[in-house]
Amino acid sequence: MQEEMKQTIEHKIIASNFKTNHTRKSTGDFIENINSFLDEEDIKNEVYIFPTATSLDNFDTVKNLEVGVQNAYFVQNGSFTGEIGTQQLDEFEIKTILIGHSERRHILGETQKEISLKYNFYKSLGYKIIYCIGEPLEVKEAGLTETLGYIWEQFDGIDLNYENLILAYEPVWAIGTGVVAKIEDIAKIHRKIKKKINKPLLYGGSVKVDNIAEVLSVPNVDGTLIGTASWDIDNFKKMIKITKEK
Length: 246
Ligand code: PEP
Fold this sequence. Notes:
The protein is an alpha/beta fold and about 250 residues long. The protein contains ten helices and eight strands.
């Protein structure tokens, strides 16, 4: 039964998180370049790019390339200095959002309560949500039970049956550090999450050209969410090509 209910993923997913990198001009060039590349190479994988909010535009993209937003507040508009809402996203027909990224949780102090409000707001509008989870180093070092307990708490207030949900497991200690989780650790955590939640599950944390093939070969890894290594267009193309072959 569990097997039958499993959501089947035809093609692996690849997503690029620009974080605080690239300008409006370089983002436009990047997206145009990736768009032509997907077309010319007949790549069918779902590809996501999350540029900075200031670089959003009316991008003309093939249907498997989606431009999303790294963050937005859970409002249409209002008085929330420094934030953007759906009024700004609608201008560019943005319908995809990253929620729960570790940098927002741990550097910018977003609480699980705020994250769940954001999640439910964007869910109610039908957005595709890439929802990030993952444990800090001290929790990993405390053991598997603590790690899983920490991850399950990151699902508080989150509807896991939402049809437009993609999960991304990103151990905090592996993000932007050059440290990739051991293959057996990725396999273990992904198996545990998949057993509980029947949704596409990406891995993120220092994925790069040299290790993406190995990461994509791990059972229950449906794709990758990449920061640093994806900001260089040639590297991102190489990783898309490897993803296609997997
Ligand atoms: C990320 O920002 O989601 C990420 C995984 O970053 P990096 O690839 O740089 O570790």
